[in-house]
Design brief:
By secondary structure, this protein is of the alpha/beta class. It contains 7 helices and 17 strands. The longest helix is centred in the first third of the chain and has 20 residues.
Length: 345
């Protein structure tokens, strides 16, 4: 049996994970990070969960490192005309990085979370796999983890469905009260543009042009928009128009018809492989360009320090700043940040 620290959020997933570990006979204790102002309001719910489970709870103040490593990069990405996804970065650097190292220093042999994913060990190498519940699978958010992290992690919910976890939580008398879902940006109170404005990163109004260069109107600041957005453009063209490109250096957004959103090729920056690259490239893999995207078959090849992804069929609205994750069957091989999109215009 092991000494395991469970990252408690106040939600039913981490609570169920802790319960399963206790039932298996492990010595389990809770650890939670105070990483933004809103988390203070959630602490009573986290303490309630720990009490119901009968485990001790350590609260670690990580506001400074979280601001530096997650919130500032999030804001800076928007300022560069990208649409960031802070969760994979937080998992690598904070929750399963700095927080896990604190837990290990406090005597934990492993750290557990309520993620729906699996880890398999083979000949001393650790492999990240999709969870049993494919609709809830969260392996996408874990694609930037490295071997040391995977060797010290356990995901008790990997072989459970969400409905099974909800049933277990009901037996324990727990609900989602006071917790954030995994798809929310936990540190935001209100719209993200409020954060950008407070940091002096609001660019102000600029032109909206179509894919032919014609000026159609003005926008309220390119940081208010993302690729694929249709609403809030304030222009009428007789046909639906979508944001297809953001040009921050010109404070310009480009709009076009739906078909202009589809791209067959993207460039991925800072590629990360959980193990080594899968043999000599190029590789035929499945690639997911956002969490809610259905992974698509593609040819993946290294070009210097970048990766070129060419899809078999054009994909809708790949977006700079989002994480592209590489899969082979149910295994996550790694991922990287989308830098450029080869559009249809």
């Amino acid at each position: 049996m092991m000494n395991i620290a469970i990252a408690l959020s106040g939600g039913i997933d981490s609570a169920a994970a802790a319960y399963l570990l206790k039932e298996a006979g492990h010595q389990v204790w809770g650890i939670t990070m105070l990483h933004h102002a809103g988390m203070k309001a959630a602490l009573p719910q986290v303490r309630k969960v720990a009490k119901v489970l009968g485990i001790s709870l350590e609260v670690i103040d990580m506001q400074e490192v979280f601001y530096r490593e997650v919130i500032l990069p999030f804001a800076q990405e928007y300022a560069m005309g990208r649409t960031p996804n802070p969760c994979p970065l937080c998992n690598r650097r904070i929750k399963l990085g700095a927080l896990m190292e604190r837990a290990l220093a406090m005597g934990a042999q492993k750290m557990a979370t309520g993620h729906y994913a699996l880890i398999k060990e083979d000949k001393g190498k650790y492999h990240l796999m999709k969870g049993k519940d494919k609709k809830k699978d969260q392996s996408y958010f874990l694609a930037l983890l490295h071997q040391r992290q995977l060797s010290r992690l356990t995901f008790p919910l990997g072989n459970y469905t969400r409905s099974e976890v909800e049933h277990l939580a009901k037996k324990l008398g727990l609900s989602e009260e006071g917790s954030h879902s995994s798809q929310e940006i936990c540190f935001l109170k209100g719209h993200y543009t409020h954060l950008l404005k407070g940091l002096g990163l609001d660019p102000g109004p600029g032109p909206i042009r179509d894919i032919h260069g014609n000026i159609l109107g003005n926008h309220k600041g390119y940081t208010h928009y993302t690729i694929g957005q249709r609403r809030g453009l304030g222009i009428a063209q007789g046909v639906p128009m979508y944001v297809v490109k953001i040009i921050p250096q010109e404070n310009t957004i480009v709009v076009g018809p739906k078909e202009a959103l589809f791209s067959k090729s993207i460039t991925v920056l800072f590629p990360h492989w959980i193990n080594k690259p899968p043999g000599k490239g190029p590789w035929g893999l499945n690639v997911k360009i956002r969490y809610r995207h259905r992974e698509a078959p593609a040819l993946v090849e290294e070009t210097g320090d970048k990766i070129r992804v060419t899809f078999e069929t054009p994909q809708r609205a790949p977006t700079p700043g989002q994480l592209a994750v590489f899969y082979r069957n149910d295994e996550v091989l790694g991922g990287g940040w989308i830098e450029e999109v080869c559009g249809s215009f």
